[in-house]
């Protein structure tokens, strides 16, 4: 299939395939680059968020650990001595020591937390909150305490008891430790994380909402519905589109607080350089496509169209139309090629016309030669016949021979027209046969040609060479009487004149040789009469016209003269 396409189509297909291949490879490469970068962004966001979560969890773990170990401090044990009940000074002194240790812990801790110790049996309270008076209320710890950190009034609170089994019934505890820290500490960490990692982290709880950094953006409020509608796991991430911008949201759930550490990244903003590069490439491809179309159009107009004209011209030239000429207005290499083609076609046409005219002249010369070479012995025999008949005082035979011989030579010596009607040819043949009948006296003939073909034209002297051969080579060598039949037929515009004789006849090999000789060039060993007739018929009426040889039912040879009259209809 590809081999049938012309050069221009192949070049156009090659350009299209090349553009498609480049576009496909770049699109695939761009998608892979975007995928890798998105994957790296997501991993980086998760790692940053994980680092932030570990920092928060570490501080909370320290607070929880201190809350659990503070009950084992010797000062706490001394503060709860029963004998200090009647010694207020010692108990106050022990309480001051406890408070001093808690302040030292706060000073050493990264977070400043509020530590409050409740002594249910003593109904006493010690707290690091100097600005608040915290009385002991009996109904404050009637409900079981939470095992995890709780959120209330912008602070996180965690309780522990001594013994730890008293968490479900705080009224039986010797000591209840309450540690709380404000959300301000988390905001400071969020600010620090945003400053170091250039992210925008925040904390989220489905029931309590958001805890954001100090530079809270309006985007957080837009992300909140997406977080509330999403089925959050222990950690993960999802994509969401806000105000036409796509974000990737990562989250990790705090094991201590129950809140989610959340961070989000605007994907399109980070991928903007790649997107700009992609758009620039597509714009370049569009320009390249337009330029390719212009190049192909120029190539089509400048090369393909002249080539097609040249191909059509050579095809017409190969079919024999030598009048073809090519027109090309552009001034380029094809102008010179077309000019040379026109010169070549003109010269070939002139050469063909010269050859054609030469053939016509040669055929006319052959005809003239044939006319001039009419068997002189025939004329001599006729004259001797007239002489003998005159001596015998047979005036009728002399008149008949003289009249037929005169009409015969009048016809064959006419040269003003190479064509004659069947009627004229038959009249000449009748004269010739009458002369031969007078000479031989043992030959008779019949002519039966339909009137429909009498006015059709054939080359002059078409019948005479055939009849002459029939008499000389067929009838004269035989001693008995001879017969010649001439008849015609017309079928589907194909005309046939048939000459049959009762002469010696020919073998199959001789007939085949006769047919073969009609197609060979004329040489010295061949008779030119029948060959000339066959060649002239083929030249005028086509290759299907000419002479054919067969065995005759009369015993001799049957010659069919066949032609399709395309000159006189």
Automatic annotation (TrEMBL):
Domain HAMP: 301-353
InterPro entries, per the entry: Bact_2-comp_sensor_kinase, HAMP_dom, HATPase_C_sf, Sig_transdc_His_kin_internal
Record carries keyword Kinase: yes
Location of the protein in the cell: Cell membrane
Top-level taxon of origin: Bacteria
Topological relation to the membrane, as annotated: Multi-pass membrane protein
Record keywords: Cell membrane, Kinase, Membrane, Phosphoprotein, Transferase, Transmembrane, Transmembrane helix
A Pfam family matched in the record: HAMP
Chain ranges passing through the membrane: 7-28, 280-300
SUPFAM superfamilies assigned: ATPase domain of HSP90 chaperone/DNA topoisomerase II/histidine kinase, HAMP domain-like
Gene3D superfamilies: HAMP domain in histidine kinase, Histidine kinase-like ATPase, C-terminal domain, PAS domain
GO MF term set: kinase activity
Segments forming a coiled coil: none
PANTHER family the UniProt entry points to: SENSOR HISTIDINE KINASE YPDA
The name this protein goes by in its record: Histidine kinase
């Amino acid at each position: 299939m590809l081999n049938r396409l012309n050069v221009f189509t192949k070049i156009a297909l090659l350009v299209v395939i090349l553009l498609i291949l480049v576009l496909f490879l770049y699109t695939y490469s761009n998608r892979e680059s975007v995928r890798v970068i998105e994957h790296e962004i997501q991993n980086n966001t998760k790692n940053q968020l994980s680092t932030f979560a570990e920092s928060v969890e570490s501080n909370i773990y320290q607070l929880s650990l201190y809350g659990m170990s503070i009950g084992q401090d010797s000062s706490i044990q001394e503060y709860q001595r029963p004998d200090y009940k009647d010694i207020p000074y010692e108990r106050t002194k022990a309480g001051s020591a406890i408070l001093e240790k808690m302040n030292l812990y706060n000073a050493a801790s990264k977070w400043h937390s509020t530590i409050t110790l409740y002594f249910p049996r003593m109904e006493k309270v010690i707290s690091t909150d100097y600005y608040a008076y915290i009385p002991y209320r009996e109904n404050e710890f009637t409900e079981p305490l939470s095992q995890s950190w709780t959120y209330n009034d912008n602070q996180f609170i965690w309780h522990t008891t001594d013994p730890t089994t008293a968490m479900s019934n705080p009224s039986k505890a010797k000591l209840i430790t309450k540690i709380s820290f404000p959300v301000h500490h988390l905001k400071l960490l969020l600010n620090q994380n945003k400053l170091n990692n250039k992210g925008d982290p925040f904390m989220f709880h489905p029931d309590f909402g958001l805890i954001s950094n100090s530079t809270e953006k309006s985007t957080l409020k837009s992300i909140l519905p997406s977080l509330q509608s999403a089925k959050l796991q222990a950690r993960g991430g999802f994509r969401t589109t806000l105000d036409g911008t796509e974000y990737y949201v990562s989250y990790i759930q705090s094991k201590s607080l129950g809140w989610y550490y959340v961070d989000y990244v605007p994907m399109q903003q980070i991928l903007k350089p790649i997107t700009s590069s992609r758009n620039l490439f597509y714009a370049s491809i569009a320009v390249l496509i337009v330029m390719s179309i212009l190049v192909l159009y120029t190539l089509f107009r400048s090369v393909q169209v002249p080539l097609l004209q040249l191909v059509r011209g050579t095809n017409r030239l190969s079919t024999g139309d030598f009048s073809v000429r090519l027109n090309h207005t552009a001034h380029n290499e094809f102008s010179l090629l077309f000019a040379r083609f026109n010169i070549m076609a003109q010269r070939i046409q002139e050469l063909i016309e010269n050859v054609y005219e030469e053939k016509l002249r040669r055929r006319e010369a052959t005809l003239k030669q044939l006319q001039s070479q009419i068997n002189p012995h025939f004329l001599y025999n006729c004259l001797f016949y007239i002489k003998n008949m005159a001596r015998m005082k047979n005036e009728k035979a002399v008149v008949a021979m003289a009249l037929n011989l005169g009409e015969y030579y009048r016809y064959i010596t006419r040269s003003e027209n190479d064509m004659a009607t069947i009627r004229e040819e038959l009249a000449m043949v009748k004269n010739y046969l009458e002369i031969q009948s007078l000479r031989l006296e043992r030959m008779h003939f019949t002519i039966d040609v339909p009137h429909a073909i009498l006015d059709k034209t054939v080359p002059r002297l078409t019948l005479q060479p055939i009849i002459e051969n029939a008499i000389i080579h067929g009838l004269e060598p035989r001693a008995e009487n001879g017969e010649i039949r001439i008849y015609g037929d017309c079928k589907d515009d194909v005309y046939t004149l048939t000459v049959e004789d009762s002469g010696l006849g020919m073998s199959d090999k001789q007939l085949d040789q006769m047919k073969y000789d009609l197609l060979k060039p004329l040489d010295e060993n061949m008779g030119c009469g029948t060959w000339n007739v066959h060649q002239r018929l083929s030249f005028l009426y086509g290759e299907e016209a000419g002479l054919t040889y067969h065995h005759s039912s009369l015993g001799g040879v049957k010659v069919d003269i066949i032609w399709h009259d395309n000159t006189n209809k």
